[in-house]
């Protein structure tokens, strides 16, 4: 029998509520609000309360999927990244860099958001950058 | 306290002990075991309270024979009594160490986080219900005013289910609050007041007034007051004191056989 409480941060939105994961016998079983966390002071919204569900869900994707012959098929990260890069290149060649837009997320960190906008501006060559917090 | 827990674990009187430990500057619940016996030096009471008994209930559901020790404040102890009565935990498998709880005139020091209730803001005082009121004071508003005040409070609900999820005595496999025939889905706020009243009725004979639900409510609804009212009725009508009475709650319908008699309609 193994029971652990793991402090973490909710990944569902930019608020960043403190959560505690309850892990029993290596399996994530439940989420609790961290009572002493300065951001949420022991409260969560419904998404935070159910964080464990997407981790243990049967529907969770564990590898990238590529649509081939009209059907989604499991693939490797190398292949998925290469396919995306090739597609982006051909779109940019045909229609110019402003045909691409990059929508950033509150679910990733500040630094990851920075890297993503840098990728849009420096690699793709567009200022079409927006964030889900503005929707 | 640390010595007692060490002895229990070493002598196998308990298999695990649920207490608190400082982690990254936060007092967090922690499961102490014989394998990591040195961690006992870090065992603290902690000034934030969590429902250790709810964790024990989950652990016991997966490992029914495990002997579990835990740190108990007064509220944890009352919750344990309810969990015994409802057959969620076996008293023989539970050992407790009681710690000092809320301060009062008789004892000044307390380890509890519920020491000073927050003061209600002026708007809440004017059109809502102050969470610090007692049942009697809340009943002094005229009927119409009272209804408006409660509806103001209840319509703030975000339907986070936090009040249920954190509650030590909410252990049902299927919860009525998610039953589409009882409460319509797909809107926030949920159907008020039915969402809260369904839960309030279920708390009759169960709620031990720990206040964890109110602590967890993001919109500060005076839930504890609502459940106090319900349990006041349970106490007056059935003479049943939730959390301290050792016998089954008057609302438990499970048993060996049906004892209700059919009556003509
Ligand atoms: S619990 Fe809700 S509000 Fe808090 S970070 Fe998660 S999604 Fe955002
Ligand atoms: S709200 Fe009612 S049905 Fe839901 S878990 Fe609590 S007692 Fe059970
Ligand atoms: S006060 Fe709230 S959390 Fe505590 S037992 Fe009652 S309903 Fe459950
Ligand atoms: S904790 Fe408060 S906001 Fe959340 S469901 Fe319960 S009453 Fe509604």
Structure explained in plain terms:
- The complex is a heterodimer of chains A (135) and B (265).
- Chain A is α+β, with helices and mostly antiparallel strands.
- In chain A, strand 4 and strand 5 form a beta hairpin.
- The termini of chain A are far apart.
- Chain B has two domains: 97 residues, no CATH class; 133 residues, no CATH class.
- The mean pLDDT of chain B is 88.
- Chains A and B meet through strand 1, strand 2 and strand 3 of A and strand 2, helix 2 and helix 7 of B.
- The complex binds iron/sulfur cluster (4 copies).
Mean pLDDT of chain B: 88
- Per CATH, the architecture of the largest domain in chain A is 2-Layer Sandwich
Strand content of chain A: 25-35%
Overall 3D shape of chain B: globular
N/C terminus separation of chain B: 59 Å
Order of helices and strands of chain B: HEEHEHEHHHHHHH
Write the layout of secondary structure elements.
The complex is a heterodimer of chains A (135) and B (265).
Chain A: E1 3-9, E2 18-24, E3 27-33, H1 46-49, H2 51-56, E4 65-68, E5 71-74, H3 77-95, E6 102-104, H4 110-124, E7 129-131
Parallel strand pairs in A: 6-7
Antiparallel strand pairs in A: 1-2, 2-3, 4-5
Chain B: H1 2-10, E1 16-23, E2 26-33, H2 52-62, E3 68-72, H3 74-85, E4 94-98, H4 122-127, H5 135-139, H6 143-154, H7 162-166, H8 194-202, H9 212-216, H10 223-238
Parallel strand pairs in B: 1-3, 3-4
Antiparallel strand pairs in B: 1-2
The structure holds iron/sulfur cluster (SF4) (4 copies).
The site of one iron/sulfur cluster has 8 residues of chain B, from helix 8.
């Amino acid at each position: 029998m193994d029971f652990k409480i793991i402090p973490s941060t909710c990944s569902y939105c930019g608020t960043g509520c403190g959560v505690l994961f309850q892990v029993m016998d290596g399996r994530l079983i439940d989420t609790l609000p961290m009572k002493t966390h300065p951001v949420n002071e022991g409260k969560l919204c419904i998404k935070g309360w159910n964080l464990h569900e997407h981790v243990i869900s049967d529907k969770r994707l564990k590898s990238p999927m590529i649509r081939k012959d009209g059907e989604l098929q499991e693939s490797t990260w190398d292949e998925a990244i290469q396919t995306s890069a090739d597609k982006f290149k051909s779109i940019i060649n045909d229609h110019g860099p402003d045909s691409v837009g990059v929508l950033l997320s509150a679910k990733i960190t500040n630094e990851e958001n920075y890297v993503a906008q840098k990728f849009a501006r420096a690699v793709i060559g567009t200022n079409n950058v927006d964030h889900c917090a503005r929707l | 306290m640390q010595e007692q827990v060490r002895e229990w674990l070493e002598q196998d009187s308990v298999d695990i002990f649920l207490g608190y430990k400082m982690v990254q500057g936060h007092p967090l619940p922690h499961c102490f075991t014989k394998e990591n016996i040195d961690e006992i030096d870090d065992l603290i009471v902690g000034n934030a309270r969590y429902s250790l008994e709810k964790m024990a209930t989950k652990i016991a559901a997966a490992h029914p024979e495990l002997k579990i020790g835990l740190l108990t404040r007064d509220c944890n102890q009352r919750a344990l009594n309810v969990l015994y009565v409802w057959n969620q935990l076996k008293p023989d498998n539970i050992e407790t160490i009681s710690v000092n709880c809320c301060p009062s005139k008789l004892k000044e020091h307390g380890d509890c986080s519920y020491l000073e209730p927050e003061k209600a803001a002026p708007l809440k005082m004017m059109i809502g219900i102050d969470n610090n009121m007692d049942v009697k004071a809340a009943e002094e508003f005229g009927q119409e005013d009272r209804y408006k005040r409660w509806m103001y409070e209840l319509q703030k609900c975000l339907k986070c289910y936090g009040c249920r999820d954190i509650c030590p005595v909410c252990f049902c496999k299927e919860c009525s609050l998610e039953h589409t025939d009882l409460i319509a889905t797909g809107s926030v706020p949920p159907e008020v007041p039915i969402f809260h009243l369904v839960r309030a009725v279920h708390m009759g004979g169960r709620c031990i007034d720990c206040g964890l639900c109110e602590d967890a409510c993001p919109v500060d609804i005076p839930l504890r007051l609502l459940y106090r009212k319900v349990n006041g009725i349970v106490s007056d009508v059935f003479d049943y004191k939730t959390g301290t009475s050792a016998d089954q709650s008057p609302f438990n319908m499970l048993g060996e056989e049906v004892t209700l008699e059919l009556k003509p309609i």
